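Subject: sequence -> structure tokens, single chain

Hey, anyone have a minute? Need the predicted structure for the following. Not urgent.
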Amino acid sequence: MVLDVYVDNQAIKVEIPENMFTHAYGFFENMDADMDKGWKMGPSYIENPDAMMRAQIAADKMLTAIDAKNDILTQLMAAYIVMKIPEVKSVNIDIHGEPLNTEITV
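Reply:
Had a minute. Here:
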């Protein structure tokens, strides 16, 4: 599967290996457990992030992974986004530190 990601108007096709969804299940559970405690998104603290917000948080982490050229973490965050929003078509990541401004197109 391929997720179309846009960073500062640059298109990136993130290839997600099919086995990542099953192999990373424990990792995704840990992410959810962390977010279940609430999450700071930009200036706002979100007590109970919904699926879209969780995908935006993962997109913010993906931006860091892309900048660090960490392909595995980039793929993990893309897989998490697809897991949370299965109908996702593309992700346009906000580069100004405001995850709530990240656009997820379904």
